[in-house]
Design brief:
15 helices, single chain, DUF2827
Amino acid sequence: MSGLRIGITIGLHHEAETLWNNGIKQNAAFLAEALRHCPQVAGVVLVNTTQVPITPALPWDQTRYPTQTFDAAKDNVDVLIELGGQIDALQTAYLKHRGVRLVSYCCGFEYVHAMESVLFSKPTWGANLFVNQRYDDIWIIPQVENISRSYFEVLRRQSARVVPFVWSPIFLDARVANLPNAGEYQPREGAKRLSVMEPNINVVKFCLYPAFIAELAYRQRPDRIAILQVTNADGIARNSAEFIALMNQLDIVRDQKAVFLGRHETPAFLASNTDIVVSHQLENPLNYFYLEVCWQGYPLVHNAHLCAELGYYYKNNEVNEGARRLLEAIETHDAQASHYRQRQRAQIARYLPGNSQLVATYDALLSELMARPVR
């Protein structure tokens, strides 16, 4: 077979691991879709770097996304993109001996994770940190660049470049296929159900400012808000005295119009529980959650500047502006719901794996990569 053979690493933790616990597995699949469109690519496989067996229980089509162990793939790739699973020094040396190019694809907020590990005694790598310094290139998605680029470059002794963000509705469509109205937003009369679905696992996406936005809107129009639902928050709502004290300052909480829930799968929770999503981020101005919400036509109140044209955008930490946009969504969204969904999907099209400009950029990156001597 002529053309480049590419492997993309994943790190399975369970043989039937869900695609909805984080975006890493989806990221690998979406990148594989995009690279398959490149004229010089003959094939793409997902390469598992853990000892978890590969079985039919995996939540993706292995015909579409062939999945192999590292040992099965190591002699049949020309490029290995390390994305969701790390290879070690011996595996790196083996690939380099074969002339394989090794790319680090950075889609996590590693600087934030490092800070938390050090400052808050959250063990991550301990004293046995392996930093691979034999990458032929470092590719960084746009939302990671600002905070983590220097972290990657200094430790890995290699310059990095920003590459296109890739997303596809393929997994979303499969998940909503059996939901009423395919899980798409449906106008509903009466007061609105607000949802905040931040992970609440670090400062990057935390529920406090979305709750403040809902509070400010509630103070102005309490009759227009039925409930505020904060997911991924049951633990802090029970165990954090500071969080409890803050929430008890809010009218929407005092009036028993707020609930703090556990983890929920985004597509199903939107379809059954939500009219409007309120969000806030620090250093995460583009992510799958925003695209899932907007693709399905739900109004999204957010401050993510890399996708400011989506949803109902407010700048930075301006919660008063966020409350204004929330009230705008409450009062006007239903009248233009169908057009809104079409407009969102047209804007999101630039992230799809088949987008011609996106594919051309990745094809050029591969050409440049293969023109370099192996490190």
